[in-house]
Amino acid sequence: MEAFTTHTGRAVPLRRSNVDTDQIIPAHWLKKVTRDGFEDGLFEAWRKDPEFVLNRPERRGASVLVAGPDFGTGSSREHAVWALQNYGFKAVVSARFADIFRGNSLKNGLLTVVLPQETVDALWELTEADPTAEVTVDLVARQVRAEGITADFDLDENARWRLLEGLDDIGLTLRHEADIASFEAGRPSFKPSTARI
Amino acid sequence: MGRTLAEKVWDDHVVRRAEGEPDLLYIDLHLLHEVTSPQAFDGLRKAGRPVRRLDLTIATEDHNTPTLDIDKPIADPVSRTQLETLRRNCAEFGVRLHPLGDVEQGVVHVVGPQLGLTQPGTTVVCGDSHTSTHGAFGALAFGIGTSQVEHVLATQTLPLAPFRTMAVTVDGELPEGVTAKDLILAVIARIGTGGGQGYVIEYRGTAIEQLSMEARMTVCNMSIEAGARAGMIAPDETTFAYLKDRPHAPQGDDWDAAVAYWRTLRTDDDAVFDHEVVIDAAELSPFVTWGTNPGQGAPLSAAVPDPASYPDPSDRLSAEKALEYMGLTAGQPLRDIRVDTVFVGSCTNGRIEDLRAAAAVLEGRRIADGIRMLVVPGSVRVSLQAVGEGLDKVFTAAGAEWRHAGCSMCLGMNPDQLAPGERSASTSNRNFEGRQGKGGRTHLVSPQVAAATAVLGHLASPADLSDLPGQSAPSGPAGASDVRTPLGA
Ligand code: SF4
């Protein structure tokens, strides 16, 4: 997993609440066998509309999604996180996230930032008025900054540490490599092996 | 205080234990198939990580494989892609694979035990909920998600939260004609589809001890349908005899050392379970499902229950919905339910003993007109053995189709499916809406009931055949009220 310390980028204001994972990535994309290539499926239904915010040329290359409350509800599919990441998003800001989506996002290194709705409103107004406005998501200082906006956010210490260090579950376990190796050294010889005979 | 079987196996696999963190558990055997592994391999590739223990990893193809014309290209592009991806991944990472056409191919939960890879006291995982099957050997075996598959591939360990323990004790002797499938369906009806949540269930008692390994696998297989994390049965002489001389069983001195260790894997007399359920084997009878989850079952002699008889409103609602989907009416005798299709197979009942049981019923008989019966061995090895015993001939002479090994009609992922509205008697494990094909209606049954049903065209047990021809089956004495308490007190 890529470490996340601080990120500055342009934003996509998504004025919708209750965006469920089926809207983020429709079910038929789940047949894919890789973790990448989901960018074209992101918000697929909405993107058929040329006026949809993601389709606007001035939003190209934006990397911070500012969404309405209850983002990521519905099915637990991790593909929703992959789709956002494949598209280029590094952070999502919302007043409230669905639990499973939030867990999946932090596991995969997509920073989900919870801010009060007033701050989300302020970010929407700023980035709608000026599409070139940059938003900084600073995990070290636990702060979101943009022109005229400074907002602190909370994140539990363990999740923050893992993001800062770029540690996924596997990376964390591999920190105990010595324990694993010593356990392996003590395994009895009668344990099964799949090696061909 | 003493420890349970599950606790002993867990303790023997703790790599690391730290305050406030889940235990890090070592995994002895990792089974892979095409459906849940692609993103896991992709994750490894992205992170530049190898498979840590190729010698503890093995893959086979089952869910998407056709059971006819297996030498022809697979028609469905999604199925084909999943199989090709598994082949590519296994070749790239060096994982042993038994693809379609290989003599060791088959349903992953049939393949592991028959190779002798599933052994007492091991930890076994697979990206598939029916991994609980392997608990029949006294292994701690459970299904995992795709991220966990990647975790095990990379580290051969899993961080796991503790479980609670439940004992399901079945004492006494199973009456004639009552099978492991009837037993487990009755257990699920008793404790409910959520009753096992958070638990590892240990099945014990004299009726369990008398079961063959095949029958024990049928029982443990369906633990997940009660919501349990895993099911286990303590290893004994039956287990050792099954394993002896299997390809991957320990040899020579290792065998002796292994058996000595396996003998210690019994729940201590003073161990305490978090929950206990006691069932009297003598009260069991052939059991079938009428609804759309495996807990909605009743003795074959009973009638479709009246939803109004359920005191719990959510149970009532789910029974109403189930009857509507299943096209059944309350009070209708279960024996009157006519089926279109009969399926014998799956990791629940696709082993040699199951095929023998179904064949014994069909021997010298014909399936009813208009019935389609599929017999699908759980693995190529099972298939070869059945052919060696002439079972395939019994099936085809009776009018059934003898197919190639695979998951087949257990789930609608390959060409073997029910058409909308079609009704089946199936030896598989899930009767969910659409599980066997969109709009399909499933009744879960034992292989014996499946075969008798095929002959009569309606749900029936072998006992109903004895008075053939001419007479109709005796109807059971039980009414809807009996459905709620199928096991007595
Ligand atoms: S036979 Fe059915 S339950 Fe078993 S692994 Fe295949 S699909 Fe799953």
UniProtKB/TrEMBL annotation, chain A:
Domain Aconitase A/isopropylmalate dehydratase small subunit swivel: 1-118
InterPro entries, A to Z: 3-IsopropMal_deHydase_ssu, Aconitase/3IPM_dehydase_swvl, AconitaseA/IPMdHydase_ssu_swvl, IPMI_Swivel, LeuD
Keywords: Amino-acid biosynthesis, Branched-chain amino acid biosynthesis, Leucine biosynthesis, Lyase
A GO CC term attached to the entry: 3-isopropylmalate dehydratase complex
Pathways involved: Amino-acid biosynthesis; L-leucine biosynthesis; L-leucine from 3-methyl-2-oxobutanoate: step 2/4
Pfam families in the cross-refs: Aconitase_C
Superkingdom, taxonomy of origin: Bacteria
One GO biological process term: L-leucine biosynthetic process
Coiled-coil intervals, chain numbering: none
Quaternary data: Heterodimer of LeuC and LeuD.
Family designation: Belongs to the LeuD family. LeuD type 1 subfamily.
Family annotation (HAMAP family): LeuD_type1 (MF_01031)
Family annotation (PANTHER family): 3-ISOPROPYLMALATE DEHYDRATASE SMALL SUBUNIT, 3-ISOPROPYLMALATE DEHYDRATASE SMALL SUBUNIT 2-RELATED-RELATED
Name of protein: 3-isopropylmalate dehydratase small subunit
Organism, as annotated: Streptomyces klenkii
Protein encoded by which gene: leuD
